[in-house]
Amino acid sequence: MWILAGVTLREGLRRRILPALAGLSLVAVLLTAWGYAQLPHLAAGNRQPVTPLQMQLVASQLLILVMFMFSFVLALAAVFAAAPSVAGELESGEALAVLARPIRRRSILIGKWLALAAVVVVYAAVATACEFVAISATTGYVPPRPIEAAGYLAAVGLVTLTLTMALSTRMPPVTAGIIAMLLFGLAWLAGVVGGIGLAFDDPVTAQLGVVARYVLPTDGLWRGAIFSLEPLTVIVGGAAAGPQIAAFPFYVPAPPSLVYLGWCVVWVVAVLAAAIVSFDRRDL
Amino acid sequence: MVDAAAVELRGVTKLYGRTTALDGLDLEVRRGEVFGLLGANGAGKTTAVKILLGLTRLSSGSGSLLGAPLGDAAARAGVGYLPELFRYQGWLTGREVLQLHLGLAGLARETWREETARALATADLERRADSRVGSYSKGMQQRLGLAVALLGRPALVVLDEPSTALDPLGRHELRGTIRGLREQGTTVLLNSHQLTEIEQVCDRVAIIDRGRVLAIGALAELLRSGGVRLRVTGLSEAGREALGRHGPVEADGAWLVVRDAVEADVPELVAVAVADGARVYGVELLRPSLEDRFRQLLGEP
Lengths: 284, 301
Description:
The complex is a heterodimer of chains A (284) and B (301). Chain A is mostly helical. Chain A contains eleven helices and no strands.
């Protein structure tokens, strides 16, 4: 298992996947830092200087948007790394000589999952830390629950990774990747539609968002990340704005429940177990 | 169970949807022999090998690998395998691929250096050991695959079409390697549609078609004599009848062919003709080539 985890990490480095991801993310951090640095110089209406409250509001919303971009990049990277990890090696024949060794298939799958999961977690932690340092250094705004936010972001990546890996045990890499990405997008969209349902008091539409969050927990976890990035003023202000605020996709009134987080853990374990069974039963 | 056959398949059937890949395959490979699986493309050779190695599950039947039931991962520690579709991680160097397999095979780290050096020498890849496999030619990759299969001196080496990418010199070396393995007491299961390869190195052969064994046995048995041809003059009718006791006699131009006669019958046939007062100018044992036998078994003209 550890041998395969090591090889998977080495593959990421040798094929320049990890250096490319790190390099481009650094560029993104620098660009956003430059953007944050412009905020204090903006003038509000009537050429008044920006008040601390306005600054907090704008900075927090901007950070949520930037983190949304990172959650998308992380999901995309997880899909691109996981889709060929099983299927690609089966297609090319690389897997044959490896699988004929005295190891169990689950060790291979879990080894690869562990390596990619480590990359996802490290990426989420580093990207979040860089963004938080950048925004606090340039605007003075400190996000309320930074560690929670990084955790949610990593969890979105882990769910996407697990889903793609499970698909990859039965489908060609491109198909597995497209389906995983499509489901990720649909889950987010279902969350937005559910929010609109809440705003307009349509229980069926509202329920759609809830069900989607259980079927594929990426959106539910992303909403957790949003909440952990919202300062108290935004939460209070949002609550005062009435039910229509639910239609706004970057506002979340409450964190995910512990039961929901438990479900997310069960989901990852169950899908990984399904991937193991599927891979075990696959004829090569 | 050291005495158990290296490989045993009993009534193994494999269905892919409606397609029957193996149709009650029976096979036994004894320890220490070089066994050839011969068959046309699609005959079921690779499926049989994949079932042995746990890469594919059988639909029905049973079998064993080095004394352990099929699917037992631990038994595969004694097996080296060169797949037909050989591809190794192109982003690793040849040395790293060998080390990866040493680790996967569970070999003690103290042995790695020696094993790697030996494998690189076998594959004649010492000078390219630290180049990425992606830069290797196909022949080099196949040689690397053979070296990977031989790591840790396995008890059974399974070679699935091992010479497809090799040049004539490489094929010659491969035959030498297989003979060397036999001398060491290693069992070799060679999958091939190359008749000459099988003919030159195998002790026993199974001819497979549509997932069934058509014939199995020692090469000498499979290629048993097709009769003895004699060029004689002055043979009487009684003499011809005497020859006929060894098998039906047919005229073939200036020659007589005694069908069913085997090598051991040759001195007797000559003695009968001479005793009859005939003069013998030539004797020839009719030995079909593996190709003839193969075509005959497949029912081709």
